[in-house]
Write a structure and sequence with these properties.
Blueprint: H1 9-21, H2 26-45, E1 50-54, H3 58-72, E2 77-81, H4 88-96, E3 101-103, E4 112-116, H5 128-140, E5 143-147, E6 167-173, E7 189-195, E8 205-207, E9 227-231, H6 236-247, E10 253-258, E11 270-273, H7 277-284, E12 289-294, H8 302-313, E13 318-320, H9 322-328, E14 341-342, H10 346-351, H11 360-371, E15 374-377, E16 382-385, E17 391-394, H12 406-421, H13 424-442, H14 448-460
Parallel strand pairs: 1-2, 1-4, 2-3, 4-5, 5-6, 6-7, 8-17, 9-10, 9-12, 10-11, 12-13, 13-14, 14-15
Antiparallel strand pairs: 15-16, 16-17
Bound molecules: ligand NPW and potassium ion.
């Protein structure tokens, strides 16, 4: 499951250097970048008047190429530059532009605006007056494009170094960067297009791609398709949501290990009374169990701790979420069976006690390495990281997912996919994708139960 590669600024520079070493001059890369961006702008805005804002580096150089190529196609183009061009290639691109260059602080608005002020070389926030003017010009335009990145975002973390406006399109050059998928930067454009400029971008970090799922074989039976156990706790509803999601995940069978007299909510789910620790332990002694979910509704008292200890000792691949993560606390790096998945949101991640700083991708990767488990660091941008360094990042999930119970659904779904394939990284990626797709199908103001109802259709769309 690999989507578009995501490269940090340093990795992008290395890929650029490799392309240059292979015989493609830097200026040729700039011409390719400008041509690819100009084509995208031409298709969107045709001959509407256009203002290109050019910065001092190579991002600005791309802007001069865009201006020249669109003017040659009959677009009324104006260029406003923020100071002098400072790189060899941008000087060359500026010299090839055959029109006037206005000072940035006097540029008048236009129907279309191109932000080619700063890209991967941004080292600090824009000056207030520059950021304000960029925002104002962008707000007044009907069509707006950010070249490579919206100016003001940190390439590797997606943080905002200065405030930036909302763009219509962001044109990523050569490869995606973390800021294209991590929030808040990933929320600064409505559409993202990645332009191929002939740079080979191979890396272990990718945007989450649509999964390819398979149908059961005619020879399959409920156990070969995967048996899931969901450990119930004091808040039975959350565990039941996880169980019902697992039952609609493609797995063959789901058992709900109830901590109280409560049915699992679907007749197809086998409810096993597991009130005492010994009942729970014996219900987990089954070699056919392919995945066990613990955490949703588990509780946080002594009894919950004992139940979690029994789960950790069972040896089956686990999906740990919610209360299980809180109870694990700073002991998270020890005792997690191999092949497991942890699904923390940022709050739960902080409670796991890794004391990690930095961007979301690096933190999730390091946590996966330390726990030897797949980490799904949830949010508007969910990062799925494997202990071997593979990472998939999903962005653009429905904002309606921020409602009670959707995390329980994801945990059950991840366990179901894990039971089907036995591969925790692809299971976690499939679960995140299916969860997002189910939300898209559920529309607006849905409840977690509605999300579960959409899972079969989401799965059917990828068979
Ligand atoms: N990689 C590739 O394969 C290809 C990359 N290409 C393009 O190159 C772009 C990267 O270009 P780049 O490295 O020249 O950096 P860029 O973002 O233009 O700016 C750096 C300049 O801005 C300055 N500066 C920084 N922050 C500032 C601030 N807040 N306020 C004011 N100034 C500030 C900084 O100076 P300094 O930090 O030293 O003060 C420096 O002078 C990339 O995004 C893509 O568009 C394509 O052409 C082709 C293939
Ligand atoms: K830009």
């Amino acid at each position: 499951m690999s989507g578009l590669a995501i490269l940090t600024a340093a990795q992008m520079r290395a890929a650029e250097q490799a392309a240059i070493a292979s015989g493609i001059p830097e200026y040729e890369l700039m011409e390719r970048a400008g041509a690819a961006a100009a084509e995208i702008i031409w298709r969107a805005g045709a001959k509407r008047d256009l203002l290109v804002l050019c910065g001092p580096g190579n991002n600005g150089g791309d802007g001069f190429v865009i201006a020249r190529l669109l003017r040659a196609r009959g677009v009324p183009v104006r260029v406003a530059a923020l100071g002098e061009s400072r790189t060899e290639s941008s000087l060359k691109a500026r010299a090839a532009w055959n029109g006037p260059v206005e000072p940035f602080d006097q540029a008048a608005p236009a129907t279309q605006i191109v932000d080619a002020l700063f890209g991967t070389g941004l080292s600090r926030g824009l000056e207030d007056a520059v950021a304000d003017r960029l925002s104002s010009l962008t707000a007044q335009a009907s069509f707006s494009y950010a070249v490579d990145l919206p100016s003001g975002v940190d390439t590797d973390s997606g943080a905002l170094l200065s405030h930036a406006p909302l763009f219509g399109v962001c044109i990523a050059l050569g490869s995606l960067k973390p800021a294209h998928v991590l929030h808040p930067a990933a929320g600064l454009f409505r559409r993202l297009v990645c332009a191929d400029i002939g740079i080979v971008a191979s890396d272990q970090v990718h945007r989450l791609s649509t999964p390819h799922l398979t149908r059961p074989l005619t020879s399959d039976h409920k156990y070969s398709r995967g048996l899931v156990a969901v450990v119930g706790g004091s808040m039975a509803g959350a565990g039941r949501l996880a169980a019902r999601a697992a039952a609609r995940s493609g797995a063959g069978m789901v058992r709900y290990l109830a901590a109280a007299e409560a049915a699992a909510g679907l007749d197809a789910i086998v409810t096993v009374q597991a009130k005492t620790i010994s009942e729970l332990e014996s219900s987990l002694v089954d070699g056919r169990l392919a995945a066990v979910v613990a955490g949703p509704g588990l509780g946080s008292d002594e009894r919950a701790k004992e139940r979690l200890a029994a789960v950790l000792a069972c040896g089956h691949p686990l999906v740990l979420d919610a209360d299980a993560l809180t109870l694990l606390g700073s002991g998270a790096a020890e005792g997690i069976p191999p092949g497991s998945i942890l699904t923390p949101h940022e709050g739960e991640f902080a409670r796991l006690g890794f004391n990690l700083r930095g961007d979301k991708i690096s933190r999730a990767t390091e946590a996966a390495r330390r726990t030897d488990a797949v980490i799904v660091l949830k949010g508007a941008d969910s990062v799925v990281a494997a202990p071997d360094g593979r990472v998939a990042v999903s962005s653009g999930a429905s904002p309606w997912l921020s409602t009670a119970g959707t995390g329980d659904v994801l945990a059950g779904l991840a366990a179901g996919r894990l039971a089907v394939s036995g591969d925790p990284f692809s299971a976690a990626c499939e679960a995140v994708w299916l969860h997002g797709e189910a939300a898209r199908r559920a529309g607006e103001a849905f409840a977690a139960d509605d999300l579960i109802a959409e899972l079969p259709a989401a799965i059917a769309s990828r068979l």
